Amino acid sequence: MNPFDLDDIPANPSRAESLDQMLARLEGRRRFLRGGLGLGAVGFLGGLLPAAQAFADSPSGRAAALGFKAVPMSTADTVAVPEGYAHAVLNRWGDPLAAGAPAFRGDAGDDSAAQAAQVGYNHDGLHFFPIDGKDGVSGSSTEGLLVTNHEYVTPHYFFPQGVQPGGTGWSLDWVRKAQHAQGVSVTHIRLDAQGRWRRVEDSPYNRMIHADSPLRMSGPAAGHALLRTRADPEGMQVRGTFGNCGNGWTPWNTYLTCEENFTDYFGTGGRPDEQAEYPDEDYRRHMQRYKGGGKTADPEYAWDTHDARFDWTQEPNEYNRHGWVVEIDPFDPAAPPRKLTALGRFKHENAALTVAADGRVVVYMGDDQRSEYIYKFVSEGTYRPGAAGNRTLLDRGTLYAARFDGDGTGLWIPLALDTLDTDGRRLGARFNDNLGELLVKTRQAADAVGATPMDRPEWIAVHPRTGEAYATLTNNADRGSGKARWPDGPDHPGADAANPRDKNIYGHIVRWREEGGDPRGTSFQWDIFVLAGNPLRHAEGDPRRGSAHISADNTFNSPDGLCFDAQGRLWILTDGNDKNGGDYEGQGNNQMLVADPVSGELRRFLTGPRGCEVTGITWTPDQRFVFVNIQHPGDGPDLDQAQAEPLTVSTWPDGPAATRPRPATVVIWKKDGGAVGT
Ligand code: FEO
Ligand code: CA
Ligand code: CA
Ligand code: CA
């Protein structure tokens, strides 16, 4: 395990068994689904999963042709794109956000004040908002706001002074610098006459919303006692968004940023764990459910030592104010971003939004930790183009957790106060009959109703025509291990139909179709689109187990980022093991591939530099340009080498003479001016 990969944090439990009471309540719907498909119970080791035929029958799901020649696996410290394509780098970590802002130096002169005026670190989800757009996707293809998540910092590259083991060497300025580099950047970019994308340096839109910026709480949990702190006795005003992983966007032109590994920064103020008492048993259970039992902050960070609000022994509720989806209006720098508590609190990966026929808004979300859940939110109100009320649509609605059953059907179970848990008790009884408390403790609610623990849900993407949803399950080495998901919790479950491998080191992609094609529905059909891995090394990589065509030449592990283009091609971005040996032979550096969701054709489009993750993808409306993020170059299985000789793993993108790698955005275009991917 890579200790710098903050996505790789063990923890969590559950009784995922179906219970009689719930089955009785839901049996009617299940009979309908089974009858409609003519399905019987099918063991998960038995060939194609039963719902696959339903997906293959969907001609409208077929992608336009994959019109490029695949790039080979790579171990080089560079970005490679197909013949006929070109790429350029923009928005490197440390690039100034405004004219007059400090330039990146790469030495001890890069302090917290400089960082606040520069592009942040470890780029993740991103979205291009056309400058003249109103709906998030249409408008100019030559000028717009590029909004980018910055997930965390890699200390030994981020601090030129070098980081000491165990987090020693940190100061308050180091904490502030790290806080200023995490969050969301908004950059105004424009295509110049030479065909190069450049920042508009004097634009009023350019800014960082970082881990010390003012935000507001919104939705059912806003103001709840669990969100009140000494600095904010109303529980309404919060400082900071951090751990910003994947993203989403709305048709009313706003950006959604997802707080993922928020737990790593909270600890006991640098004191030994044994000196820290939990305030009470409920607090212990709640914190351990999210933090995996650990009391101290991640040893790579020392925020809790230098910034008291991250010391939970002093400010126990600050912890509850993070782990949400945040809505940002990139076109209104004066409007404080809002934390959307109606969408639940967990380690949010991304937020894939679709609109039902009646205008209700549906948001699919994954909780990225081993053996965690998939969720969706259905709004109470309806979307109307241009309506002012769209701005509060994500504040009221119903949150659901997914249960994937072995017969290829599934259920969305409402996390509502009146839902019966697997013991037949009202969920409300566990949460003082308060929806705000339930949402703060979303995972505990999903445990109680028997949601299915999945292999680290990462991104979800919705097909633009069929409405089918695809979700990456990046890997789960703990499945079937017998290890506890958290202290006093159940063990990680063994393989099941939707997560068919014990010790799943390669990951897979699952997809579902809502009953009647209605995203508001409470039941669905599902199958496995692809089991990733190396078919030469691992029999479970057999392509017949999924619909897509893994081969020895065209393989990958740990799918993470995921996006459909407007023609229905599925773009798969990876964050996996790139040691290129043993079980990972033939996979090389992390990469981006394209798949046809119906034929299963799969082709590698891009390889990244050494040690990087490829993540985050967005398009200009004309699809002539695609923007992709390169996160944590120089990281990965060569970490030991990186610590011994920090500059030898990667110096991308500045070249061999550079002092350190820099996360950045890459823009790719077809030299003949055609749409990317055609
Ligand atoms: Fe930030 Fe789960 O990736
Ligand atoms: Ca990663
Ligand atoms: Ca990710
Ligand atoms: Ca990941």
Automatic annotation (TrEMBL):
Amino acid composition bias (Basic and acidic residues), ranges on this chain: 485-501
Region feature Disordered, mapped onto this chain: 476-501
Pfam families: PhoX
Transmembrane regions listed in the UniProt entry: 32-52
Statement: the UniProt record of this protein carries the keyword Membrane: yes
Matches recorded under SUPFAM superfamilies: Calcium-dependent phosphotriesterase (SSF63829)
Keywords: Membrane, Transmembrane, Transmembrane helix
UniProt protein name: PhoX family phosphatase
